[in-house]
């Protein structure tokens, strides 16, 4: 190509002509043609030809190369390679293609397309250096086959066979290549395919049952193939008529062997079973779809488990099957049940301690065993003479040859019973009277006044300290009704003199005070503290005198104008002197509680608390002038209280009726004393419960004074409560065991309490208070005075 560019030079009036260009390239030409390998190609397989060029070529359209397959010309179409120097052409063998002399490669045609180089020169289509195709063979002929029944099978035969014969050797034939068509009410399966030469195949169809026809067909699109992979087309085989009515496909019962082994054509069977149980449950499975089973006058579906009652001796079980065509087959099973054993005797009876008197004999019913005081538990090991018999010891079933659960022995007589039940229901009872000795001449500790006094003192101190903490918290919740009272972070000290009985401090609580800071926002948090000291004395039985101290404190948060909540902790300590010999009980407690006061409507308050605590109890019990038995035990508490009150306020008057419910449970761990010159005791676990309900009313009136406010108050309340301490076992440490007990103690009281109070609120923030309170319950009386000192900080 040439190109002329003219330019005019203005100043020189000269014309300059520049000629540029390049020499034209030669058109593309083929270098060689690679042909498929020397193999035989079957239906669907590809013959790829690779045309190599002397330069890069670009293809549009679908050029093709003609191939002569047999006597027919085919086209190998362009597949890929544009933009390279090698183009791929492909022909896919079609059914009926056949050339075992080698295909012939013809000419390359454009078919309306183009083959150009980068300069758009048209390619020379002559194919050069074409590879040999003398052994590139094509076989597109599918194998064919015929199918026939082997022999003349009868309709009642359980299986039939078919011959499938191909016109050439094929491979890949298996069960999945066949389709068995079952007529209505017929069952069967293709079970086996075998061959000895890959030409003739033997197909077995078995498990035939029902009334109708079956047909076997060779499927299309199987994995069967001749030497080049050509698969035969599917076709149906001959039809066979089945006349073999459905019956049972099997039956079974757990642990039962039937004779002979099941066969669908066998209609009678037998089995033997032991005397127990008195029924046999047999699961029957029917053949075919819709086959029903009838037994005991009832119709069942296939797979049902049917119970049959058995008597001793021979039992004939009759079961019938019925097909959807109404054909009935009846089976009989003769079940022989052994006679039940009447043996209700033991072969052996062995005690865990001591020996039977008289020596054991199966027919002897009554025995005695004597053991020392050191033996505190006892068991029996019975062995039945008949393995089908059962045995019960003191009402508890026991496995033959195994020990019964251990029973705790009391000092003295302890009866045991052994009841053997024979297989037929007969029973025989053995009795064993076990006598546990008293050991040494040690006295009964449960009758000792000091032991009982310590137990009572511990119960009373646990309740008293808890009531003190609840009282402190209840008083605090009453203060929550009034914001100024709530803000009076305080240290309260109360002193009272009372007799043992319902705790006065719990009954009374604290009254809210006049709010000198009403309307002032003092913030949501408030810290408080309070205390109580109780001096108690009881003269019923052994003299008991106690001092109980309780200190509580906590943190409040005002969540809203309607609800204030907080967390409080308490420390308590009690010391009770028991009698005049130096015996005493000391108790310490730590409690924590969540509490809150809710005002759902004006002047109405609901106060509640829930908490838990831990206990440490120490005891000192007089043994002699020079020796004491010392004990230490731990415990836990859960408690709660709920109060509802309504406050009527008129000027400086306050009148507030209220009701309260208190509940608690304490758990005291078992412990053993130390020291005591051999008289130390071991104590078992104990629980202490308390539940009470209170109805009361309180009132107060405020007088304005030059120095602050003087507020007298009064209250009255009625409490109905119940208290209970669980039975506590005890025994001597040196002897072992806990054969003695302090019995369960329960009491119910109705208590009337009256109180007067006088509080002085000094403008400097100091509060002085005094309370007088009196309580009565039956013959019990209590009076007390408490002093309070508060200072805001």
What is the CATH architecture assignment of the largest domain? Beta Barrel
CATH superfamily membership of the largest domain = Autotransporter beta-domain
Helicity range of the residues? under 10%
Radius of gyration: 54 Å
What CATH calls the topology of the largest domain is: Lipocalin
SS-based class: mainly beta
Shape, principal axes of CA atoms? elongated
Q: How many structural domains in the coordinates?
A: 5
* Parts with pLDDT < 50 across at least 5 consecutive residues: 1-23, 488-522
Give the strand tally.
55
What summary fits the major beta sheet?
Answer: 16 strands, mixed
Name of the top-level CATH class of the largest domain: Mainly Beta
> Counting H and I runs of at least 4 residues, what is the number of helices?
3
Mean pLDDT: 86
Strand content: over 45%
Distance between the termini: 111 Å
Describe this structure in words.
The structure is a single chain. With 793 residues, this protein is mainly beta. It has 5 domains: 30-139, Immunoglobulin-like, CATH 2.60.40; 145-244, Sandwich (Immunoglobulin-like), CATH 2.60.40; 248-337, Immunoglobulin-like; 346-436, Sandwich (Immunoglobulin-like), CATH 2.60.40; 449-791, Autotransporter beta-domain (Lipocalin, Beta Barrel). It is built from 3 helices and 55 strands. The chain has a 16-stranded mixed β-sheet that branches. Strand 1 (2-9) and strand 2 form a beta hairpin. It is elongated and about 135 Å long. The model is unreliable at 1-23 and 488-522 (pLDDT under 50).
């Amino acid at each position: 190509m040439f190109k002329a560019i003219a330019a005019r030079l203005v100043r020189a009036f000269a014309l300059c002509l520049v000629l540029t260009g390049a020499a034209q390239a030669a058109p593309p030409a083929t270098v060689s043609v690679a042909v498929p390998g020397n193999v035989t190609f079957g239906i669907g397989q590809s013959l790829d030809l690779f045309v190599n060029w002397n330069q890069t070529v670009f293809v549009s359209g679908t050029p093709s190369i003609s191939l002569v397959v047999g006597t027919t010309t085919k086209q190998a179409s362009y597949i890929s390679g544009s933009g390279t120097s090698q183009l791929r052409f492909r022909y896919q063998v079609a059914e009926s293609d056949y050339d075992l002399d080698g295909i012939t490669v013809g000419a390359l045609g454009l078919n309306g397309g183009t083959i150009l180089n980068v300069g758009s020169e048209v390619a020379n289509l002559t194919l050069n250096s074409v590879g040999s195709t003398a052994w590139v063979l094509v076989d597109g002929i599918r194998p064919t086959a015929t199918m026939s029944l082997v022999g003349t099978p009868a309709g009642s035969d359980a299986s039939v066979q078919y011959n499938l014969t191909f016109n050439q050797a094929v491979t890949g034939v298996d069960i999945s290549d066949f389709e068995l068509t079952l007529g209505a009410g017929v069952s069967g399966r293709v079970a086996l395919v075998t061959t000895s030469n890959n030409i003739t195949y033997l197909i077995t169809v078995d498990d035939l049952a029902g009334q109708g026809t079956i047909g076997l067909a060779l499927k299309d699109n199987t994995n069967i193939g001749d030497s080049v992979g050509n698969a035969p087309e599917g076709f149906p085989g001959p039809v066979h008529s089945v006349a073999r009515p459905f019956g049972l496909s099997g039956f079974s019962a757990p642990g039962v062997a039937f004779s002979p082994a099941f066969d669908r054509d066998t209609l009678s069977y037998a089995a033997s079973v032991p005397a127990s149980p008195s029924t046999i449950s047999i699961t029957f499975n029917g053949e075919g779809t819709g086959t029903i089973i009838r037994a005991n006058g009832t119709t069942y579906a296939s797979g049902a488990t049917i119970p049959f009652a058995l008597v001793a001796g021979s039992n004939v079980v009759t079961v019938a099957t019925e097909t959807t065509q109404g054909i009935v087959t009846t089976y009989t099973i003769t079940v022989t049940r052994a006679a039940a054993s009447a043996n209700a005797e033991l072969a052996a009876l062995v005690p865990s301690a001591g020996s039977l008197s008289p020596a054991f004999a199966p027919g002897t019913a009554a025995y005695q065993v004597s053991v020392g005081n050191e033996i505190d538990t006892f068991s029996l090991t019975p062995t039945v003479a008949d393995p089908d018999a059962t045995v019960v010891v003191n009402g508890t079933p026991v496995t033959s040859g195994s020990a019964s659960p251990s029973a705790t022995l009391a000092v003295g007589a302890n009866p045991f019973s052994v009841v053997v039940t024979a297989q037929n229901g007969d029973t025989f009872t053995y009795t064993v009277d076990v006598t546990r000795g008293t050991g040494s001449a040690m006295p009964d500790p449960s009758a000792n006044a000091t032991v009982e006094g310590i137990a009572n003192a511990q119960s009373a101190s646990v309740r008293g300290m808890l009531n003190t903490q609840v009282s402190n918290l209840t008083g605090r919740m009453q203060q929550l009704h009034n914001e100024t009272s709530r803000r009076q972070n305080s240290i309260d000290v109360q002193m009272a003199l009372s007799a043992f009985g319902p705790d006065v401090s719990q009954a009374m609580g604290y009254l809210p005070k006049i709010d000198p800071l009403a309307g002032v926002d003092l913030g949501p948090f408030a810290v408080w503290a309070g205390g109580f000291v109780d001096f108690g004395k009881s003269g019923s039985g052994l003299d008991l005198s106690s001092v109980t101290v309780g200190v509580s404190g906590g943190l409040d948060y005002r969540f809203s104008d309607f609800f204030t909540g907080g967390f409080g902790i308490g420390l308590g300590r009690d010391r009770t002197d028991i009698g005049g010999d130096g015996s005493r009980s000391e108790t310490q407690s730590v409690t924590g509680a969540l509490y809150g006061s809710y005002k759902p409507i004006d002047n109405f308050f609901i106060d509640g608390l829930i908490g838990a605590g831990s206990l440490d109890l120490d005891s000192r019990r007089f043994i002699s002038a020079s020796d004491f038995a010392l004990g230490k035990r731990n415990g836990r508490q859960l408690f709660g209280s709920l109060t509802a009150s309504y406050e009527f306020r008129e000027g400086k008057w306050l009148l507030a009726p209220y009701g309260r419910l208190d509940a608690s449970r304490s758990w005291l761990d078992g412990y053993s004393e130390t020291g005591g010159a051999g008289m130390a005791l071991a104590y078992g676990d104990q629980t202490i419960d308390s539940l009470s309900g209170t109805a009361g009313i309180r009132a107060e009136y405020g007088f304005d004074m030059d120095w602050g406010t003087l507020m007298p108050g009064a209250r009255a309340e009625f409490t109905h409560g119940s208290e209970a301490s669980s039975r506590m076992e005890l025994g001597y440490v040196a002897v072992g065991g806990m054969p003695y007990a302090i019995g369960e103690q329960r009491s119910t009281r109705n208590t009337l309490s009256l109180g007067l109070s006088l509080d002085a609120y000094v403008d400097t923030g100091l509060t002085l208070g005094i309370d007088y309170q009196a309580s009565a319950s039956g013959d019990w009386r209590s009076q007390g005075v408490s002093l309070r000192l508060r200072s805001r900080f």
